[in-house]
Write a structure and sequence with these properties.
Layout (H helix, E strand, L loop, with lengths): L1 E3 L3 H12 L6 E3 L9 E2 L2 E5 L11 E4 L4 H10 L3 E2 L2 E2 L4 E2 L4 E2 L4 E2 L4 E2 L4 E2 L4 E2 L4 E2 L4 E2 L4 E2 L4 E2 L4 E2 L4 E2 L4 E2 L4 E2 L4 E2 L4 E2 L8 E3 L4 E2 L2
Length: 199
Amino acid sequence: MIVIGAGGHAKVVISTLIDAGYEVSAAYDDDEAKWGQTVLGVPIVGPIRRLETETDLRAVIAVGENLSRKTISRRLSLNWVSVTHPKAYVHGSVTLGVGSVVFAGAVIQAEADIGEHVIVNTGATIDHDCRIGPYAHLGPGVHLSGGVEIGEGVLLGIAGAVLPGMRVGEWSVVGGGAVVIRNIPSNVKVAGVPAKETK
């Protein structure tokens, strides 16, 4: 297994992979200053472009920024692997897309559908029948009630919450601690309790 990215988020991805029983052989990052160093003991061997001709390597994108994950996933043709930490709970009826990572303490309940390359961060909870679009990132401690729909590329900041049946549109950002009580359109930023659009 390899990881793409060697920053802080990569540390949590690598630790999740190791705890889930994978051997992580290498990390790739475009920051030349990191080459030859290690992240959690994993060697950082060079830039991402070195993977452009590879097709068989098993990999996870360890980059927290949503648009960057999408760009990398479209640029490379690797064997993307979804990973769940052994101390997370994921019901057997959940659909987990390729490349998605579920961190320690997370809970995903029945019939939830998680898209590709999604981050379900530490201690986040997703209740029944939620739909999470590709490249979304649910920050630590986020809580989604039942039947919530999260669009592609949405960022839900730490400890945010979404009430039952609400929708957050594609590529919107929900600030830390915000509470979504009504539908949020695409490509906006919201914050506060209740969540309101902000610049």
